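Hello,

I think I submitted the zinc ion job twice by accident. Can you confirm which output corresponds to this input? Input:
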Amino acid sequence: MTVSFLENFKQQTELEFNILKFRIENFSKQKFKCPVCGYYGPFRDLAMSTGSTAKHERCIRCRSWTRHRLQKLVLDELFKDYDPSTKKILHFAPERFFRKTFQILFKEYVSADLMMEGVDVKCDMTNLPFEDATFDFVAACHVLEHITDDYKALSEIRRVLKPNGIAILPVPILGKKTIEYPEANPNEWDHVRCPGEDYYDRYLDFFSVVKQYTSQDFSDVNQIFIYEDRTIWPNEPCPLRPPTPGEKHTDAIPVCYV
Ligand SMILES: [Zn+2]
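Support: Only one job matched these inputs. Its output is below.
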């Protein structure tokens, strides 16, 4: 037996023990099915640096967040009519949930990020080091809310896409109207704006069609809503976030067609 086998066995045993413990401790909590890993049971609440608590946010097995689960469902829907096996993808800020899937499904896979270690290309999204029309598909989940010149980033994404290219560019939608911040807020993971329901309209300057998939398009059992008290904003950590009534918020993923 190798050390890595033993280490892996130990990690798996610990994970299964922790899942069992969590399930027992949260027996009466609402149960969901994770579309990323298949886990069924209670999900973990997450306390955020923004001052709020997101209920049922994280899958206890694969640690996916709401946005990852919705993205997985949208990708499954998309790939019913799209054959990636001949296509080339640029995966920006690659989430571990999708890296392997994209590597298997697509003919060519390129990961990129400005800060992240272990990517194929370290680069700035506002200045991509690729020729025009290099990629068939671009995925960049929760990236644009970190980029001050998002119009330049969108123009770069559009430039490196081939005719008939597709981009998936979700950001967190946190109000009606988008609010630009004077500087990045460290309590919001360095977001430079609070995107509102009008944010995806910006994509129409670069793409002919922007189709939005929302939490309402799929079964509630997947836990793809944001359960969060957003009436607490504005608060000290987030002085520019607007208050929003309700405790169950819709998430939205835009699929952009060249
Ligand atoms: Zn999961």
